[in-house]
């Protein structure tokens, strides 16, 4: 599958997140579309790797999003947690903008190994 429409650029304000459900090759994928403090857009799994709650309901601080349940923070650029209790990263997806449309490819998560 290729990049698909996720939302409009105006749907996500700086330092906020929007939950969307996209269709992946293996079924629905919950994605948080996040605009960081500098205005850059990110697409990160909307499922915390610690307790499976939506990251989109957490606070956005700079290039990080904080899980509201136990306070782990995840790097929007890599999906890596940098605060316990989460120890596993969450997937980060390629995001692009076509006019005012935000496009995400949930079948090609970024790799940082
Ligand atoms: S559920 Fe997210 S840190 Fe525990």
Automatic annotation (TrEMBL):
* InterPro entries for the chain: Rieske_2Fe-2S, Rieske_2Fe-2S_sf
- Rieske domain boundaries: 4-104
Please identify the protein, giving its name as recorded.
Answer: Non-heme iron oxygenase ferredoxin subunit
Q: Where is the signal peptide?
A: none
Q: Which UniProt keywords apply?
A: 2Fe-2S, Iron, Iron-sulfur, Metal-binding
One of the entry's Gene Ontology molecular-function terms is: metal ion binding
Q: Which domain of life is it from?
A: Bacteria
SUPFAM superfamilies per UniProt = ISP domain
Entry coiled-coil feature ranges:
none
